[in-house]
Amino acid sequence: MKVAILCGSVYGTAEEVARNAKQLLTDAGFEVLLNPRATLADVQAFAPDAFLAVTSTTGMGELPDSLMPLYSQIRDQLPAPWRGLPGAVIALGDSSYGDTYCGGGEQMRELFAELGVQEVQPMLRLDASETVTPETDSELWLGELIRVLKP
Ligand SMILES: Cc1cc2nc3c(=O)[nH]c(=O)nc-3n(C[C@H](O)[C@H](O)[C@H](O)COP(=O)(O)O)c2cc1C
Question: Which of 8, 38, 98, 145 is the most exposed place for a label (fewest CB within 10 A)?
């Protein structure tokens, strides 16, 4: 089974979480695409069976610039073969931002809804005010995702 990780990061924290997720998924026998500069064509060529979005939040609840080109391409085209595929979101944010807490992750959830990608697990929020070890904090959740996705 192939999992495409859609990653957005400003300072590299979300990218570290995504790399760790790739490792766990690979160890569990999945084939994983993780390329922070992937285009829509790259993701389509990979032909994913599932999606994992891992993104931080910047500005006032916005997605990182690194994810915007891919996000916009996906939104413009909404590839039909992705409808019905399973997906899940890891959102990095900081609860001190109040209303925009994990806004980037929420935007990915909305994109999944538009695509018809089925969220198979509630979004994981990793709060920079609470933790300095987001990779390890995500591992229990990733273990559950692996259990849900495993054929
Ligand atoms: C300029 C700036 C704006 C931010 N805006 C938000 C925000 O609106 N909501 C939120 O939840 N976190 C916000 N954050 C917190 C980051 O999302 C959080 O620190 C995250 O762990 C950074 O991950 P990254 O290194 O992958 O970019 C902001 C951080 C910075 C530096």
Answer: 98
Number of domains the chain is built from: 1
CATH of residue 71's domain is 3.40.50.360
The whole domain housing 87 covers 2-149
Beta bridge partners of 55: 8, 91
Mean pLDDT, rounded, for 74-85: 98
Name the nearest CA neighbour of 92 among 122, 64, 121: 64
Average of per-residue pLDDT values in the chain: 97
Q: Is the pLDDT of residue 151 over 90?
A: no
In sequence order, the β-bridge partners of residue 118 are: 86
Is residue 44 exposed (0-12), middle (13-18) or buried (19+ Cβ within 10 Å)? middle
Q: Which residues line ligand 1 (CB under 6 A)?
A: 9-14, 56-61, 64, 92-94, 97, 100-103, 128
> Which pLDDT score is estimated for 103?
98
DSSP for 43-100, please give it: HHHH--SEEEEEE--BTTTBPPTTTHHHHHHHHHH--GGGTT-EEEEEEEE-GGGGGG
